Amino acid sequence: MQAPCWFMLSKTRFEQTQRLIASMPHSSPTRILVVEDDAETASKLTQLLQEQGWETVHQATWETGVSEASKGPFDVIILDRMLPGGDGVDAISQIQASGNTAMILMLSALGLPSDRTQGLERGADDYLAKPYEAAELLARVRALLRRKTGQVTETDILTF
Q: pLDDT band for position 148 (50/70/90)?
């Protein structure tokens, strides 16, 4: 039995969209800012991200993180909450006010539902509590990159 007509049209549209995205020039490598004060965590995290072919920049304090975010274009900012100099959640509004359009992933030991809710309500695009699994963190970063670029995958639902 043949699939319903709507499915075939959606699959065709999906393939057209994928070809269009693949044909678009890629202007620059993916850049990720990691704002994390724990040296061991930062080292492991930046290595994990670099293994994916992503360019990383690391800052260890609230002030240097906000300053770096305002200097250059980043695709994703991974931001700790408990930083020397302030709460990462408070940095979100300053980062966004500087014109940075990066997707923000809060990565914090503060993992209670109220903490996660506060981070999301204050502007984070995602929130992951420590300790975390590397595969989940990478999946979340990839999802943020897809949202930022408008990319679609075979598992995404398309509506036309």
A: confident
> Residue 25: what residue type?
P
* HSE-CB for 50 with a 13 A CA cutoff: 10
Distance separating alpha carbons of residues 79 and 58, to the nearest angstrom: 10
Q: How many residues does the chain have?
A: 160
**Cβ atoms of residues 87 and 81 within 8 Å:** yes
Distance between CA atoms of residues 158 and 10, nearest Å: 7
User: 3-state DSSP call for residue 10?
Assistant: helix
pTM: 0.76
Q: What distance in Å separates the CA atoms of residue 109 and residue 132, rounded to the nearest whole number?
A: 10
Q: Which of 81, 85, 82, 31 has its CA nearest to residue 58?
A: 31
Distances (CA, A) of 144 to 88, 102, 140: 18, 9, 6
101 in helix, strand or coil? coil
| Lowest mean pLDDT across 78-87, 102-111, 145-154 | 145-154
